[in-house]
Amino acid sequence: MKIRVIITGSKAKAVQVVRYQDNKRFILQHFGSAHNDDELNELLLLAEEWINDYSGQLSFFPDENPNRILYLNHCTFLGV
Fold first, then answer.
1. Which residues contact 30 (CB under 8 A, 6 or more apart)?
2. How many percent of the chain have pLDDT more than 70?
């Protein structure tokens, strides 16, 4: 899944979450159109949250809950 920002006919920026499969683009969710940077940032945040909720995958760069990741260099193996 990928966040896609496109320019509309009215020069607004539309935010979508898309998935590519077999060289085809599937729009999974459309979040709306932004007419300024504040609106665009809000829509991008909504899209990121939607991807996290929809996919259930952990992010490479987690910034919300650090307790969901196990860092092996901070662990000690005690045995089986």
1. 14, 15, 16
2. 81
